[in-house]
Write a structure and sequence with these properties.
The chain has one domain. It is mostly helical and about 120 residues long. Helix 1 packs parallel to helix 5, helix 2 crosses helix 4 and helix 2 crosses helix 5. A two-stranded antiparallel ribbon has the order 1-2. It is about 75% helix and about 5% strand. Keywords: Membrane, Signal, Transmembrane, Transmembrane helix.
């Protein structure tokens, strides 16, 4: 639960930063599009990384990651979440968090890199 609160605070921080002020409808649409793409692509990306329905793939990296996570007790949540997403997709709550973060990052990136260029051309 603490991770979700940190993500929400991070998204709020990005939206209140100087680069993300004065949102337009195109910024909102871009954020929604970016969030949708990431939510749809996440299960495919996890499966392509070897965390699919058949279990963790035979790659040395993935098996070592799983071994270290279970041996040390650190990272078990990450490995199990990647496995669950690769096997069955995102839950509704995961989709909401991932879409919010991806949309915020997409909009903030657009405003940071492209909005300043438009002002320079006019001024």
């Amino acid at each position: 639960m603490a991770t979700s609160r940190m993500i929400v605070m991070f998204c709020g921080l990005l939206l209140t930063a100087n680069t993300a002020t004065a949102l337009t409808w195109s910024d909102v649409a871009l954020g929604i599009a970016g969030g949708t793409v990431v939510v749809v692509a996440a299960p495919y990306a996890a499966a392509a990384a070897g965390f699919g329905a058949a279990g963790v793939g035979t790659s040395a990296f993935r098996t070592k990651l799983m071994s270290v996570a279970w041996t040390t007790g650190m990272g078990t949540y990450v490995v199990s979440t990647l496995q669950a997403v690769g096997a069955g997709g995102l839950t509704l709550a995961q989709s909401a968090v991932v879409a919010g973060v991806a949309g915020t990052v997409t909009t903030a990136t657009k405003k940071a890199f492209f909005d300043g260029e438009q002002e320079d051309k006019c001024g």
